[in-house]
Design a protein that fits this description.
The complex is a heterotrimer.
Chain A (H helix, E strand, L loop, with lengths): L2 H37 L9 H11 L10 H20 L15 H21 L3 H32 L4 H10 L1 H4 L2 H17 L18 H4 L5 H26 L10 H27 L9 H21 L2
Chain B lengths: L4 H22 L3 H25 L3 H28 L12 H18 L1 H6 L3 H4 L1 H17 L3 H23 L4 H29 L13
Helix pairs in contact in B: 1-2, 1-7, 1-8, 2-3, 2-8, 3-9, 4-7, 7-8, 8-9
Chain C lengths: L1 H18 L4 H28 L2 E3 L4 E3 L1 H30 L5 H23 L3 H19 L5 H35 L8 H7 L5 H19 L7 H8 L2 H30 L2 H23 L4 H22 L2 H32 L10 H4 L1 H14 L6 H15 L3 H26 L14 H19 L5 H11 L1
Antiparallel strand pairs in C: 1-2
The chains are: A mainly alpha, B mainly alpha, C mainly alpha.
Chain lengths: ~325, ~220, ~475
């Protein structure tokens, strides 16, 4: 394989992975809503409804608050861009993504956080009370979730001697025992808590309410309209799919393409879709049966996530 | 990284013991805490069972079965009966709030790790590497006895301490001599019975379930 | 044979008490069993001093001079306490606070308690000793709560929780000792005192350091050493007087005996400095706590309890010095303290019964109103404070001499200062209770001989030990040699 060809393949892989996340994000949202409504005894909107919403929002006229600066418009763009960039180099369908050696777990997480930070800045930008409240709450959650996430990654990296994501997935494929080690399990448990918190799902935030007392994320994007709102929605859903994809690949790596080749890649893609779908459905089912935690109880949940990660790290160190 | 199924199973069982300890700090509902304790008892028994099977030690397997029966079934049932008398069975006002105690538990775990390094160095087996988890469980038990104010919570804390010590004993030496082992297990059972009787007396005679109400004796 | 007989007599009396409803003769039978224990222990100790240690049941029981000496202490204080138990139960039954069934339960538990303590000191195996000491916790819980008042239930709750934790920590220490021994013996370990002492120089120092720290914390809880002492004043204050006498006079010392044994092993593995440092820290802290809380004490039973803490602190300091002279003094102090504290607790039990209060402020002019009881209390206090001729004077003096000789002069000075403060505090409290003028309408009341005769006997014994060295000299010397 010469270098031009390999660059082309890498580009293709990147494009397919970005495309999968781009389309998969809104679709997963649709599936989760469908599952919820079915379980609650409603028929619910069709699965592709979020895509339709997205098309509608994107074609609308761009409307921004009078006081808004460039930061306001920047937020959604950065969000989508960072998620797409990460999606290109993450081990989603294959363990050999383009630029795989730079796909470091810590780096990826911080690139993703960039989007959240810009969203919060954008919400603050207009100076309305709702935006500020939403930002402050989201940042509180983020500040609590972050240490947990860092320690969780640490716990996964210690036994593997690397924090490179593709390598972590590969090790899981090669030595299934590693996945069953308490270090990895505890860290993944903590990772799940963080994903729920960061993407504004129950029990941290209720994605389907606009009750001002409780909302976190929705308050932040209240000022957005039209294409900006569409991009925000898209970015959020993409991030959920991306994080879930990483989680399932770390937990059950089977199916991921570990060899070059089109067939293996397609199998990997199908497996990824299946696993993420299952995870999404599981979260939706969980959401039906759980209530949102009161805001001041949130630290307990996130501290729980943190302690799981710490325990994971300690077991990783002791069982090394 | 250990990679045999034996080591992996052992790690999971020992990990479950300490996760249960943390969960008891996390939850407020006393009945949920008692259930967690039962899970922990079974996990502790599993550690002994795995070790016993691995070393072909029939006595240890027997002890494991006893532990599962006593700590997984008998003691939780005893506690649940006491719980049935108290209508407000929630640990609503611990001295230290839940997030802080969870962070404290994390700190104790790290402390346990650093404190047991000489012991871990002496025991070169897979099991020996997990000793810090036992000590951490014990320290979390101490912590929970100090910050929790319900009678049942203190019993739970005591049992956490005991389970942690038992875990260390199994991991470090594959169990002390049988006579001592049986004495120790029997003692725990008796202590729980004694505490249960006392709790029942305090509740039926004086309506006391919260240890903050016991303030008669002090200097 | 004698060693087994030592256990059989109190346990057998306990079985009889369990089988028959409470009668006075059952109580006397129990007392007789304890007197037998005392006699047997004395016989045994002369035998041990002459011929060396005796074993029984393989390694489960093993009697050396130290065990025999502790058995003498248990027998002496136990005989006093069981004799006064008869009086206590009579009183409780008469005023209707205690049913016959309850009385019989009390007698059974006391016998079980004493048997468990005997087993602890006679055990040749560390694990068996641990089980026996833990058993004392469980048994005494119900004895502490025997009066069934809110206060006594609170005290027994604290007692069982704190002591169970302490004893669990001691178990962890024992496990680590076992681990270290296993390592030396390549997988083979017996946990017997003799084998541990033989290999002590080869035990892994890192593990032994943790193990000894845990053992000091764990058994220290039962000894009443700070910082795990908070159960002690509550339990001793709330328990029936004979039980307080047993707990304070013997149980604390039995736990301390465990520490002494472990210290000799730790000395071998770690050198003298680390065990000495730990014991010094625990002892000094205990002395400080006891002193500060004694000054403003208002309850005479709690006052006695804190004084027990003080003496345990002194014992810890003496053990920290660790020379044969110091250990012999420590052992003599254990016996003297057991007798003096037993007399005081039993007197205070009688006092509580006749006066109906344990408040220092509400009792006055004892010496003129109840000359016998007041006299007992005064002489007991004098013994406890270490006035000559009582044996505590000799033992305290020797502990201080030993401390000075090993370069712990500052410790000696510090403990002297604490003792002086406590002396003043106890004297003040005692003066308030004892002195004063009788009011005209108050009669002079006698105290029954069942109380006075045994207690006076105990005080005379305590004084005799202080004056004459011959009955114990050889035994103390041999016992100290066991752990130095």
């Amino acid at each position: 394989m010469n270098s031009v060809e390999s660059v082309c393949v890498a580009g293709l892989v990147a494009i397919v992975q970005i495309g999968a996340v781009l389309v998969g994000g809104p679709l997963l949202l649709g599936v989760m809503r469908k599952v919820r409504s079915r379980l609650e005894g409603r028929r619910g909107a069709p699965i592709h409804q979020p895509l339709l919403d997205l098309r509608k929002l994107i074609t609308k006229q761009r409307l921004r608050p009078f006081e808004a600066s460039w930061v306001f418009g920047f937020g959604p763009v950065i969000l989508v861009a960072t998620v797409a960039a990460v999606a290109a180099i993450s081990p989603l369908a294959t363990t050999r993504p383009p630029l795989g050696q730079s796909s470091d777990f810590f780096a990826i997480i911080f690139v993703l956080l960039l989007g959240s930070v810009f969203l919060a800045l954008g919400a603050l930008d207009t100076g309305t009370p709702f935006g500020g409240m939403g930002s402050s709450r989201a940042m509180t959650v983020g500040a609590l979730a972050e240490p947990a996430l860092l320690v969780a990654i640490l716990a996964m990296s210690i036994p593997a001697h690397t924090s490179n994501l593709p390598a972590l997935v590969r090790i899981g494929l090669a030595h299934p025992v590693v996945i069953a080690s308490p270090a990895r399990l505890l860290a993944l448990g903590s990772f799940l808590v963080v994903i729920l918190a960061e993407s504004g799902r129950l029990p941290v935030d209720n994605p389907s309410t606009h009750l001002e007392l409780t909302m976190i994320h929705e308050a932040m994007v209240l000022e957005y309209a039209g294409p900006d709102l569409g991009l925000t929605m898209l970015g959020e859903s993409m991030r959920l799919v991306l994080l879930l994809g990483l989680l399932v690949n770390l937990l059950v790596p089977w199916g991921v393409a570990d060899r070059p080749g089109a067939l293996a890649f397609v199998i990997g893609l199908v497996a990824l879709v299946g696993k993420v779908l299952l995870a999404g459905v599981a979260i939706a089912v969980f959401e039906v049966f759980s209530a949102k935690l009161r805001l001041f109880r949130l630290p307990e949940l996130l501290a729980g996530g943190f302690i799981l990660a710490v325990l994971g790290a300690v077991t990783a160190v002791v069982s090394r | 990284m250990s990679s045999s199924p034996f080591a992996s199973l052992l790690e999971i069982a020992a990990g479950l013991v300490i996760v249960c300890a943390v969960v008891t700090l996390w939850r407020r509902s006393l009945s949920a805490i008692v259930k967690t304790l039962a899970v922990q008892g079974v996990a502790l028994g599993a550690v002994a069972l795995i070790l016993g099977l691995h070393q072909h030690d029939g006595v240890l397997v027997g002890v494991a079965c006893l532990i599962i029966a006593a700590k997984g079934a008998v003691i939780p049932t005893l506690l649940a009966r006491v719980l049935a008398r108290d209508p407000r069975s929630r640990e609503s006002t611990p001295l230290v709030n839940v997030p802080a105690s969870l962070v404290g538990a994390g700190a104790l775990t790290v402390l346990a790790y650093s404190a047991t390094r000489p012991v871990v160095a002496l025991v070169a087996t897979t099991a020996g590497q997990l000793i810090p988890l036992g000590l951490a469980t014990m320290l979390i038990g101490f912590f929970s006895m100090i910050v929790r104010r319900k009678a049942i919570s203190q019993i739970v804390g005591l049992l956490l301490v005991d389970n942690g010590i038992a875990l260390v004993a199994f991991l470090a030496t594959a169990g002390v001599p049988l006579l001592v082992e049986l004495g120790a297990s029997l003692d725990v059972l008796l202590v729980v019975v004694v505490l249960r009787v006392l709790a029942a007396q305090l509740w039926s005679r004086f309506g006391v379930f919260d240890l903050d109400q016991l303030r008669e004796l002090r200097d | 044979m004698l060693a087994i007989a030592l256990l059989v007599f109190p346990a057998g009396a306990g079985l009889v008490a369990a089988a028959t409803p409470w009668r006075r003769w059952v109580g006397w039978l129990c007392t007789a069993s304890l007197v037998t224990v005392l006699v047997l222990a004395v016989v045994l100790s002369t035998q041990v001093v002459r011929t060396g240690p005796i074993g029984a049941f393989g390694s489960v029981l093993r009697v050396d001079a130290l065990s025999a000496f502790m058995a003498i202490v248990i027998g002496a204080v136990g005989a006093l306490a069981t004799c006064q138990s008869v009086r206590y139960l009579d009183n409780e039954i008469r005023i209707g606070r205690c049913s016959v069934r309850h009385a019989s339960l009390y007698a059974v538990l006391v016998q079980g308690f004493i048997s468990a303590m005997l087993l602890a000191v006679l055990a040749g195996n560390v694990g068996v000793m641990w089980v026996a000491i833990e058993a004392t916790t469980i048994i005494t819980t119900f004895l502490v709560g025997h009066r069934q008042t809110r206060g006594s239930l609170e005290a027994s709750w604290k007692y069982v929780i704190i002591c169970s934790v302490g004893i669990a920590v001691a178990f962890l220490g024992t496990v680590l000792v076992y681990l270290a021994e296993q390592h030396v013996g390549h997988g083979h370990a017996t946990l017997t005192w003799t084998s541990l002492l033989t290999v002590s120089h080869h035990l892994n120092p890192g593990v032994m350091r943790i193990a000894f720290a845990l053992l000091v914390l764990g058994y220290g809880t039962k000894v009443g050493l700070a910082p795990m002492h908070s159960w002690l004043p509550d339990a001793h204050g709330q328990a029936p007087a004979p039980v307080s006498a047993l707990m304070s006079g013997v149980l604390l010392s039995v736990a301390f005996y465990a520490l002494l044994r472990f210290k000799s092993i730790a000395d071998g593995a770690l050198g003298v400095a680390f065990p000495r440092g730990l014991l010094l820290a625990a002892g000094l802290l205990t002395l400080i706590v006891a002193t500060s809380l004694l000054i403003k004490q208002r309850d005479y039973k709690r006052m006695l309890a804190y004084s027990s803490m003080e003496h345990m602190g002194l014992l810890a300091l003496g053990a920290a010095a660790g020379t044969p002279l110091a250990i012999a003094a420590v052992l003599l102090h254990i016996l003297g303290h057991g007798l003096a504290k037993g007399v005081l607790f039993l007197t205070s039990g009688e006092l509580l019964h006749v006066e109906g209060t344990s408040d220092i402020d509400q009792i006055r002019a004892l010496l003129v109103r109840r000359p016998a009881l007041g006299g007992l209390f005064a002489f007991g206090l004098a013994a406890l404070l270490g006035l000559p001729p009582f044996s505590l004077f000799v033992s305290e003096l020797n502990m201080i001499r030993a401390e000075t000789r090993v370069g712990l002069g500052w410790v000696a000075v510090f403990s002297l200062v604490c003792m002086a403060v406590i002396f003043a505090a106890l004297l003040t409290h005692g003066r308030r209770m004892l002195l004063g003028a009788r009011e005209a309408h108050e009669p002079v009341q006698a105290t029954p001989a069942i109380v006075t005769v045994p207690l006076v006997g105990a005080l005379i014994a305590c004084a005799a030990l202080g004056v004459l060295a011959w009955p114990l000299g050889a035994l103390l010397h041999a016992a100290a040699r066991v752990v130095v």
